[in-house]
Design goal:
The protein is of the alpha+beta class and about 775 residues long. It has a domain at about 415-585 and about 600-765: Beta-galactosidase, Chain A, domain 5 (Distorted Sandwich), CATH 2.70.98.70. Helices cover about 25% and strands about 25% of the residues. An 8-stranded antiparallel sheet has the order 17-18-19-20-29-26-25-22, with no helix packed on it. Strands 15-21-28-27-24-23 form a 6-stranded antiparallel sheet, with no helix packed on it. Helix 2 (about 150-175) runs antiparallel to helix 3 and helix 6 packs parallel to helix 9 (about 335-355). The longest helix has 24 residues, at about 40-65. The protein is elongated and about 90 Å long.
Amino acid sequence: MTVLLTVASYEVGVVAQEHTIEIPKMSTEYPRMTVGVDSPEQVASTAEGCHKKVDAYVLRHVENPEWIVSRLQMYWDSHADEIYIKGEKLNHVGGRAPVPTVRYTATRGIQTNYSRPSLEDTPSYQDSLGMWMKNKTTGQMEWADPRETGRNVESMNMTVLNLARDAAYLWWAEGDEKFARFAADIFDTYMTGLYYRKPPVDIAHTHQQTLVGLTSFEVIHEDAVLPTTACYDLLHSYLEKTRPEKIAVYDQAFRNWADVIIAGGVPQNNWNLIQARFVTNIAMILPEDSAFEDGRGRNWYLNEILNNSTIRQWSIGKMIDYGFDRGSALWKESPGYSTMVLSEFDALADLLYRVAGIDLVKEYPILDQAVKALPQYLLPSGLSVCWGDGHYSKPNYKFKHLKAVPSEEYTDYQTPVFWSEGVSWFAARSGSEPGNSLMMSVCGSQGNHMHANGISIELYGKGYVMAPDLGRGSGYSTPDYLEFYSQFPAHNTVCVDGVSSYPVMESHHPFRLVNCYPKPSYKKSDAPSDEGICYGEFSFVEPETQSDQLRHVILVNTRPGAGYYVDIFRSRRQDGRDKFHDYFYHNIGQEFTLDVPLEPTEELAFAGAHLYAYSYLWDKYCCKTASNVKGIFTMTCNDGSRAGMRMWMKGSPERTVFKVSSPAIDALTRTPMPYDVKNSPALTFVARQEGEAWTRPFVAVYQPFVDGDTLEIENVEYFGEGYVGVKVVFSDGSVDYIFSSDRKIKMKYDGIRAEGPVCVKSKVNIKQ
């Protein structure tokens, strides 16, 4: 049967933009954010950890109170209060404040050949014009231009500020004044210096001007807000006693900081939430509105975050309305960022509930549903799927305030087929056994941190992400990301005429789910029984060439341990001016072989106005053939056994197949693998179809394998006139038949009748 896509959605309960959160009257006492968080036993345990970090520095401070303060990165000599940037780098500084001011980081990017030295190796009162840093290549300390040191200015200050926060905690918990003096000296120096600092000015008038904070090139990296607000909260009574004249300075510095964060950034994605948490932390340590002539105190800033929307800082409600897919409850960003956003929501919700009694989950029930949707991301191995910007990893789904799903219950929140229209993501799985189950992930480009990838797939089998997404690359502004990792040839998709592309990062190019089996479900109770057969039919109009694309992906796992995938990809230009269509497929492994004679080639290149991404391919070999081809991707496991993927592809006239190397699978560099993924190429198969690829589609069968498999695909045959037929023959003599058509027609072969987009006959079961 063909499944019509009439799927249920979550009941979210609140239209957020029409909802106002009432801000209650709160205590004026300090501390506000720490009291009531921990039991006496937890306080003692936290204090023990703080002692290990700060005791040696605090004892030194008693004898030499300048030592730790001098490690702060400040404009000690120039007292500069004006910061001028040019795009993503510091250009120069100017002006002069009456005190040393907080030094501005010198670059937006993190790429650097220098590592941060220890506090002991950091010179006192480091001069503003350079930095003593450790060269990663030589291991030696040397004088470096700050613009070549990444974000180490921020990192070094965070190290010192975190020590101040820990010492402030110890003073609060134990009352020993030497810890208060240590924390207060650091806090006073930093916050007084920040009070006199002005927001950066971009002399190039670029987009960067809308992103900068007081200490960082991105307002989402104003990380110093967290230790300084915690320090102020814990130390407030001590500061009032020892520096009463400075309280107004600190309060105004924090207000200035919040104003810059609110004025900058990006409202429609994770930035907005990170900014909201920073501003909320600042709000919680400010006096009441009545303490300021302009009436902008604690409640005013909380209202800015919870209920008010400005050009670059939306209210929590407006952001929830925009950012969550109301059907699936997924956040509209790539998986890693989606998970991170819920962690940020959790931190914000925890703070609001503890200090203000505001229950964000009660106000917006979709937050609870979003947590329950997270296990859908998980592959049978426990890794999260990965598309767009991100890495394969085992995510942390533990939360303080949001009601987390226990890890032992993850499978209770996974369904055979899951679909998120708002995120343009489809998943189908045959179970949750790491070694035997299969899972396919199909992604488009809808939301933030997305790539130009058309209809792209990830395939799992035998405990590994066999056909991975390649990930982000070295950074968002680096050539490898801009020219390769974010583009079509880095994905398991089809690129038309060598030019398929569209805007990346914030992208609005979803595919359409035409049909699928079984019906998508969001709760286990609504899901059909697992029958080992799933499929999805996806359509997409590739915008650069205005090409129609239709992809059928079928998962068949009716024989335990011998599952496989069938991938049928049709592609053609609407104007009929097709030059060629390139089918890209990447697999893990150290070796890839094809069963046809291959010759070196210079094809697949940036030539003829093709994408730069083609220039990132090397070790290129090809064979022009109309014959069916078979390939195998092989990886040697830690125990010496082999695992990998077997591939069969139907031949076609005017077809050329390629064996090439692509840049490394960056997405797998943060999870253990049997080989050095970071320094190994991604094994890549490319099939080029001259002319259109609609009546001559790409038809491939993929079977994951490990040594010791007792049941394997022995042969793949093809049949059909006006439709695609695939006959899969197993080593035990059993046979599967797969029928696929781009329209509703009657298909017949070997006594089997089929009608519909996809039909699978496995043993005696027919699903269509």
